[in-house]
Structure formats: structure tokens, C-alpha cells
Design a protein that fits this description.
188 residues; alpha+beta; Ubiquitin-like (UB roll); 7 helices; 32% helix; metal-binding; 2Fe2S_fd_BS; 2Fe-2S-bd; iron
């Protein structure tokens, strides 16, 4: 059994100690914001904060990090109002969004160690792969988040993600064809 603190909650994983942290988080803790990308530690989609270090969770066995504090994208901010999350939304950084949790977690570790990172520091820290190519907006978003974290700027919160339940089942007449019973044909 491996004991960790995940998102400020003590967790005891009853898994093989060789189980990668990624799978403990996703499968045992249902923290699916940490993504499986390459499985080799190259892409960074699975990056989490382990004791203040950006760690590729697909490469770390849970038995090797016993007693550590792990923060995932879900633990960064329950209300999704962390300066990085707000800055990424304001700069329209996410496209498909798959790599964004890993990039945000890498950036959050950077900001813990460098409250005012320059472009070179950001480029050096963010080695995550984004197939959509969000890199041009990434640097300014991280710098804006740093300014907000230092209290020099306010980033307005955007609309909460999701669909209003009233809109979820709304019927758009032009997109819904009439149903036919099995005894009639569409030509009837």
C-alpha cells in the first residue's frame, strides 16, 4: 500500500507499488484531468505537482513517492479560479484542451519558484507538447497569471464551463427529423 496526500486529502492506494501515479490518479481516485498522452514522459499531458516539482506522472511509480503531496489540475482550484486557469481562458489558449491540464500544472510549479518569469524561463519550463500549437498565446497567459498572482492585475472570471441543463435537451426543429413508426415509410 502506498500512502500519499492527493489534493490535500490523505490517500492509501491498495495497488501494486509499481503502478504509475497516472493510473492511480485516473483509475483509483477518478481524477481524470491528468491525461494519458504518450506514456513515455515526453508529452507532458500527465504532469502533476509532486512536492513542488512538475512530474510526468506516467513515469513515477506510486511506491517511489510514498509520503509526498500531489496536486492535480482538480486540486489547483475547486472553483476554477486559479490565476493560470483564468489567464488561459482570457487569452483563449485552450483549443482541443487535452494538453492544457499538464501545461497549467507545469506553469503552476514554475510560478511557485519564479513569481515573475521572463519569456526564456517560461520556454525553458514548459516542455509540454501541444498538437494544436497554442504556444504563441501561452507565454503572455503565464505572465498575466503571474501578474495576477502578485496582485498587479485582475483577470475577470469567464462563464463557468458546461451547458445549462435547460439547454441540454433543447430540440432544434431544423435538426430533428420526424420519427416514423415501423409500419410506415418516409414517403407516406
Amino acid at each position: 500500500m502506498s500512502r500519499l496526500t492527493v489534493n490535500n486529502q490523505p490517500v492509501e492506494y491498495r495497488l501494486d507499488p509499481a503502478t504509475p501515479l497516472l493510473w492511480a490518479l485516473r483509475d483509483a481516485s477518478n481524477l481524470t484531468g491528468t491525461k494519458y498522452g504518450c506514456g513515455t514522459g515526453h508529452c507532458g499531458a500527465c504532469t502533476v505537482d509532486v512536492d513542488g516539482r512538475a512530474v510526468r506522472s506516467c513515469q513515477v511509480p506510486i511506491g517511489g513517492i510514498e509520503g509526498t503531496y500531489v496536486t492535480t489540475i482538480e486540486g489547483l482550484s475547486r472553483e476554477r479560479n486559479h490565476p493560470l486557469q483564468l489567464a488561459f481562458i482570457a487569452a483563449e489558449v485552450p483549443q482541443c484542451g487535452f494538453c492544457i491540464p499538464g501545461i497549467i500544472m507545469t506553469a503552476s510549479v514554475l510560478l511557485k519558484h519564479d513569481a515573475d518569469p521572463g519569456e526564456a524561463a517560461i520556454r525553458g519550463a514548459i516542455r509540454n507538447i501541444c498538437r494544436c500549437g497554442v504556444y504563441p498565446r501561452l507565454i503572455e497567459a503565464i505572465q498575466r497569471a503571474a501578474r495576477a498572482a502578485r496582485g498587479e492585475e485582475t483577470i475577470p472570471a469567464g462563464a463557468r464551463p458546461g451547458i445549462d441543463p435547460a439547454d441540454a435537451a433543447r430540440v432544434v426543429p431544423a435538426l430533428v427529423a420526424p420519427m416514423h413508426d415501423s409500419g410506415s415509410s418516409p414517403a407516406d
